[in-house]
Structures are given as C-alpha cells and as structure tokens.
Amino acid sequence: MEFLDAAADIGLIERRAILSCPACNEAIEAEAATEELCPFCGEAFADHGGVRRKPVYRLGVHGTRDIPWVIVIHGFNTHGEWQQDFSWRMGNKLKYSAPVLIYKYGLIRFSVLVRWRHRQLARKLGTTIRSAVEYARANRIPEPPDVILHSFGSQLFVQLLAMTEFDDLKFGRVIAAGTIIRPDYNWTERISQGRLEAVFCHCGGKDWAVPLAQYFIPGTGPGARRGFSDNAVINVMNEHYGHGGCFEIKELEANLAPGGLWDRFLRRHPSMFDGDPNLYRPKAWRPMWAPIRGIVRIVGIFLMALIAAIAITSISWAWLKAIIWTGIARPF
C-alpha cells in the first residue's frame, strides 16, 4: 500500500477513492456521501461508523512525457538570476539531455511603459527563438520547446504570439509565474491554433507588483494574482508566493522534484490535474476604467521622468565638481 501511495504521489499511477455505505455496502457517489442517509437502504451513515472509503489504483492511460528543450524568459528591471538556477537544476534532474535556452533581453526600466518597445522586444525574441528552433532541428530535436515565463517576459511572449510574422513558431508546455498577462487572455484560441500545447499559471497570493501592471504597462493585467479565466489553463495559487517566490531555491527544487507541480505539468498529461486540490478557479476580471488607467499612467510617467532628471542633474553636478576639484577646469 505504501508503495502504491508513493507511486500515486509522483503521478505514476492514479489513485481514487471508492465510497460505500457502511450498512448495505453499496457504492455511492461523492455527492450522496455528503448526505445523512444512504440513498439505497435509508440508513444513517453516522449510525454505522460513517461512509467507507477504499482506495483503488489505476495505471494512467497517458505515459510520461520527455521534456525536449526549454526556453526561459525573465522579467524587466532584473538580470533574471533565477534562470541559471533553473537551468542547473533541470540539467541535473533529467537522465537525458534537454537543452535550456536562457534568453535575456537586457535590463530595461522605463521602456516598458510604451507599446512600440514591447513589439520591438517581442520581435527580437521571436527572431532568437526561430534561430534556436532551426538549430535544434539540425541537431535532431524536432519537438517545439517548453517555455518558462516570468513577469514582463510573459507579456513579450503573448506579443510574439500575436505577430503574424512568427506564426511558424510553435511551443509545448508553458509555465507563467509572476505573469502580467491579462486574466481574460484567450489561451484556448492559441491552443486550438496549434501554437502551444498547455498552460500552467503559478499564482502568488503576496505578489503585490502585478496588480499595478495595468496602470503603467499597456496591455497587461494581474494574471499572477487573479489567475486566468480560460478553462484551458491550469491555475495554481500559492498564498505565500511574492512576485518571484516560485524561483527561490527551495521552492524551485520542490516544484521540479518528482511529483512537484512543475514536474507533473511538464512530464505528465494535463488531465492529471483534474480534481487536484491545488487547482484554483479565479473569478471574472475586468480591467480598471480606461480614463483612470490613463491618468495614473501619465502621473507615473511624469514622476519617473522627474526622478530620472533629478538623478541626471545630481550626477552632472558631481562630475562638474570633480573636474573643478582636480584642476582640469577652473571656476570663473
């Protein structure tokens, strides 16, 4: 029994509970088990020790899936240090070679505020991925890559999917963490188009950054706090995660360990999450009223520009004073 439970915990077999009446031994549905009386014999469950539960085990009809190769894309205002940790642990996790492409678009800050910069970065991402796909095929890896997205990297990914010039690019499993994609994004359409296979959204209950995204970064929303309303997406909520909580070493190891959430999503059939207690079904989401978002964005851009101007002025004065002090220049 312990062996079977261990196999079920890591997703090798399926474990289910058969419910039965303690009085007549008839099998009953889960809904009937919540009632007081047995629908067959009319006896009270509590009078006979309560509903009986017997575990049964079944070998899953879907086998394990090999991870072909992976692309990891970081967020803005960061160098994406977690990408190296992920690559190292993925390489040590598997008994076969699964290359990891660490994509870095540079340390950007203010340019996330304008759409044209989004498209520019997405086009650069698409060009890099297309070259990587061609190289992988030349090295006998024909399968599309899985993708790990964080924060602004997730916005670049959906921008890429919207560009017709990159319609040839297809992807496998997609994990979005700390995502700023709109919660009402139509993932089902992308799946039906064959652009990707399945989507996993790892939400964080303490991610205080993403609710602000829709006010400052055009076309975004609090995906990592609200989850996606699209039924095709597997949403999982961790109430203790901040914006990068799932990339902390301990959490990354747990998610990638055999039977971990990411391991199961990447290696098993998505149906293995049916009925999983970790699943999270979000409520309907509506973006904030456009005029309010516009006003907040204008104020935010003004404040950022003011801070930048003050910083530049301070640096210029410090530089000028240094020149004067060293005698390279003399005050008038």
TrEMBL record:
<keyword id="KW-0472">Membrane</keyword>
<protein>
    <recommendedName>
        <fullName>Alpha/beta hydrolase</fullName>
    </recommendedName>
</protein>
<feature type="transmembrane region" description="Helical">
    <location>
        <begin position="295"/>
        <end position="320"/>
    </location>
</feature>
<keyword id="KW-1133">Transmembrane helix</keyword>
<keyword id="KW-0812">Transmembrane</keyword>
<dbReference type="InterPro" id="IPR029058">
    <property type="entry name" value="AB_hydrolase_fold"/>
</dbReference>
